[in-house]
Amino acid sequence: MSGSSSLDDTVQVDWHALAPDAAAKLLQSNPSIGLTMGEVGDRMQRFGANQMTAQKRPSELIRFVLQFHQPLMYILLISTVITAGMGKWVDASVIFGVVFINAIVGYLQEAKAEKAIEALANMVVTEATVRRGGEKLRIVSVQLVPGDVVLLQSGDRVPADLRLLQQRSLQIEEAALTGESVPVAKQTDPLPSEAILADRTNLAFAGTMVSAGQGEGVVIATGDRTAMGRIAGLISLVEDLQTPFTRKIAQFSRRLLYVILGLAVLIFIAGILRGTPWPEMLIAAIALAVGAIPEGLPAVVTITLAIGVLRMARRHAIIRKLPAVETLGSTTVICSDKTGTLTQNQMTVQEIHAGGRLYHVTGSGYEMDGKIHFKHAPVIVGENVALIETLGAGLLCNDSRLVVDASGHTTVQGDPTEAALIVAAQKAGLSEQELSRSWPRIQTIPFESEYRYMATLHGNDAEPKMIYIKGAVEVLLEKCTQALNEAGEVAPMDKALVLGEAEEMATRGLRVLAFARRPMAPDHCCLEHEHVAAGLTLLGLQGKLDPPRPEVIKAVAKCRAAGINVKMITGDHVLTAKAIASQIGLGGGTAIIALTGRELEALDDEDLADAAENATVFARVAPEQKLRLIKALQGRGHVVAMTGDGVNDAPALKQADIGVAMGITGTDVTKGVADMILTDDNFASIEAAVEEGRGVFDNLSKFILWILPTNGGVALILLVAIIAGITLPMLPTQLLWLNLVTALLLGLTLVFEPKESDIMQRPPRDPKEPLLTRSLLMRTALVSLISLAGAFGLFAWEKGIEGTNLDEARTAVVNVIVMVQTFYLLNCRSRSHSMFFIGAFSNPWLVAGIASTWLVQIAFTYSPVLNRLFHTAPVRAEAWAYIVSIGIFTFAVVELEKWLYCRARRPLKNYPADASVAGRSD
Ligand code: ATP
């Protein structure tokens, strides 16, 4: 490329001091055409992709070493040194070996969790609208190069640093860069070269968000050369691995650690005072600490949440903030948009009302082979001027395109609402090209939910101009005083008649748009909201069918059974919304209560809270009302998930407990604040995510239900032995072995349990539920006592038998503990059902875990090498009969307890579908 060297020289240019043309010229870019594909290729080679280099993470070695930076690890390392100091080299190396393996396992688990979450970063691609080779294209932002012409509109994330060439009420929120939270009004004039970054109002910076208006700019810097790239590395997708629950667990583990350490110290001192030699007491104290502390707990929680994130991603829900995984499980209300989320966003014009007549349009989807009928007979469209004008307005006041791919399949570029209008006009034989030639577009007021209309100004140089406008019926009727009749004459408008007609269409579930026009003088060349405020002539109405997504009907029913209320919050007409709501079963067989934004406005906070709870459909709702509704629901104790796509939805998404953004149609602004992004924009994916969220929590609670009683059992055995001054039934190295083997091979497999079949028939989890519930404490006591009795019974029996040595008795005790833990693991597979109900082999990880545990236990018991390392000895056959019996006994007792407990609690299955506030705690 001839001028490429001068392009390189531009890196240090003060772009804000240059005029727009001069900037574009320096970048060898023609703003009205953009770069050619050849130029893009050259520049891509020269400047690289438009992406920031990831922040450097600590090296793998440091991450591994950090695994030792935990109180328990310190204790174990100190124990290693003391044991070595006492000359017990084998024990010292075994302790260190176990510590080392633990660190490796922790490191691998953490790496896996981080990788899983990082992988999601690549699933959300940001796109940009560019002008290249004279065409407007949507491309992945990574493909931008300096000199590209980028078009911005409200809701966009600025994809690279730009020198603005044009703008219209453009406001950009630059908080990410400058910390300034008030949006900056942009302009295009040159500025003094000394202007500081925050004052360079003619530039748009990568990573900032367009909060209003539109603009056009030429790319001046990409990737690391942007202002953001120079100060920060890649902004991570998921902020960190901490969640309220992991914090709760970490806090709990820390407290437990202190309690156990305190106990160990006390026992150590008491033993010495009693005259026991200190090395012996030290070993006993270490054994207690090692046996009682559930060291695997925090890591397991993180890994389980990460598994949940992956499962959700597979079901089209990408988690941006890890706490969302848990909050999803306690969601009590889901507030969903209608268009595209509950419906297919595949619009077809079915009815047109123009010139006092109602027409039907045949055909479905974006296929052109339909006809326009009046009373079942095809019509000649030209005979009704109002009809042809309505269709023409739909074609001209339109920013979307239909693209037919190689296989003949039609796809929409832009808004499906508008695409449907193109299809309807083409069914009537109108040609977009011809119309645009006679009425070229001069100016646009793009559609924004706030105004609910779009307007365009058309005309040729010296000829009279025409404004076409389309939008919500009530909004346009306010602006119209007259209407066009069949013959093309302007006559007074019968507002009530038109409104009635529109309502009938809406009752049939159609999304109705009104069309109007306003002639302007030949010298008129600009278009502002004031130009369409009044004096319009109504042309007609078009009613579009947007069928519900079939999978949503099932998902809504599942939510109801799960005690989750689904509410529709839409910008559409109340009758359309109600019709769709009843089609998807939102009312659950009862009449649907619907409220409009205007009705909500009149309510005070208390009444609004009642309304928010009782109504199912909220129509014509303004974004700021969404915020009020969420606050009202939260005030009543609800955990609210809320969807949104427009830039004005961002505050509501932030306020919601789970802000859900749309991956396809959502703006970058909403994606930026959301906790979760739906890659398919589908309500059913929210329901799927809730299901996964519940699954994650279920499995976590199963793991906790397993680990606390098993650790409790071991702690109790040691405590009793030490206090009673009995020989320790297990040595510290044996306890380390026990902890390592069982937590890893047994406990961890619970996090892979498949979701229980009735998971969506229970009430939502109460997020305030304490970690230690009454039932968990009871279970801990029960299992601990069985372990205690089993272990001491066996220990005493073994010791009493002639010829049995202490090593053999201890080996038998370790085996009885592992057996109790194995059978108890089967109990923990479900909190309410027996293992046989959920399928004995439905968790292959668990089956493999049990098999491996017993393979290594046999090695532990019979292999001479492990015998030497762990002071174990082969166990007699009779002892095995005892060991297995204790296991079976545990299983039976816990199953009985589960049954009694569930019976007292009553089955959860018939939980009332409209249960409102969060579920109960144990
Ligand atoms: P939801 O909030 O459930 O997605 P929605 O898509 O209908 O509903 P908005 O996009 O805010 O909500 O639209 C509100 C109203 O604005 C629509 O009912 C329609 O009357 C009008 N409207 C929608 N799209 C356009 C458009 N492209 N041009 C003109 N008017 C539109």
Please, could you describe this protein's structure?
This protein is α+β, with helices and mostly antiparallel strands and 922 residues long. It folds into five domains: 4-54 and 118-237, Calcium-transporting ATPase, cytoplasmic transduction domain A, CATH 2.70.150.10; 60-113; 323-343 and 549-681, 3-Layer(aba) Sandwich (Rossmann fold), CATH 3.40.50.1000; 348-545, Calcium-transporting ATPase, cytoplasmic domain N (3-Layer(aba) Sandwich); 693-919, Calcium-transporting ATPase, transmembrane domain (Up-down Bundle), CATH 1.20.1110. The protein is 47% helix and 17% strand. Strands 10, 11, 12, 13, 16, 17, 18, 19, 20, 21 and 22 form an eleven-stranded mixed β-sheet that branches. Strand 1 (127-132) and strand 2 form a beta hairpin. Helix 5 (71-85) packs antiparallel against helix 10 (278-292) and helix 26 (732-746) packs parallel to helix 28 (806-828). The longest helix is centred in the C-terminal third of the chain and has 42 residues, at 683-724. The protein is elongated and about 115 Å long. Residues 1-6, 233-239 and 907-922 have low confidence and may be disordered. It binds adenosine-5'-triphosphate (ATP). The site of adenosine-5'-triphosphate has 20 residues, from helix 14, strand 17, strand 18 and strand 21.
Topology:
Elements: H1 4-9, H2 20-26, H3 37-47, H4 60-65, H5 71-85, H6 89-121, E1 127-132, E2 135-140, E3 149-153, E4 161-173, H7 175-178, E5 184-185, E6 203-204, E7 209-221, H8 227-231, H9 244-273, H10 278-292, H11 297-314, E8 317-319, H12 323-329, E9 333-336, E10 348-354, E11 357-361, E12 372-374, E13 377-378, H13 385-396, E14 401-404, E15 410-413, H14 416-427, H15 432-438, E16 441-448, E17 453-458, E18 465-472, H16 473-479, E19 480-484, E20 490-492, H17 495-507, E21 510-520, E22 536-545, H18 550-561, E23 565-569, H19 574-583, E24 594-596, H20 597-601, H21 605-614, E25 617-619, H22 623-635, E26 640-644, H23 650-655, E27 658-662, H24 668-673, E28 676-678, H25 683-724, H26 732-746, H27 774-800, H28 806-828, H29 835-838, H30 844-862, H31 864-870, H32 877-905
Parallel strand pairs: 9-23, 9-26, 19-22, 23-25, 24-25, 26-27, 27-28
Antiparallel strand pairs: 1-2, 1-3, 3-7, 4-5, 4-6, 4-7, 8-28, 10-11, 10-22, 11-12, 12-13, 14-15, 16-17, 17-18, 18-21, 19-20, 21-22
